[in-house]
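User: Fold this; tokens only.

Assistant: Input:
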Amino acid sequence: MVVDLKANELVLKASDSNYFAEESNIDGKLILTNQRVYFKTKEDQHSGYNLEILPNQIKEILYFNTLRIFPNGLNIILKEGKQLKFKIGKRNTWGKVLNRIY
């Protein structure tokens, strides 16, 4: 898995994640840089789910529980109204860092 970083872009945080897309659960990696957030799928067949989120696109960061009991859900709400839901470990740390960039 390779992410093409832009000039002067540094990876600040990366973690395995699942993206809840429509009826699918896509395995990948959530990557936070000093310029944007990426979701990169582990399998090439799901490359259509690769995401690039700029800080100015983010409206709100919310937490949720997966299966109603596991506190590992992170919901990134974009200004356009779209919700990007991820299952990720240490979601509170991710949420704090994401709240600082937008």
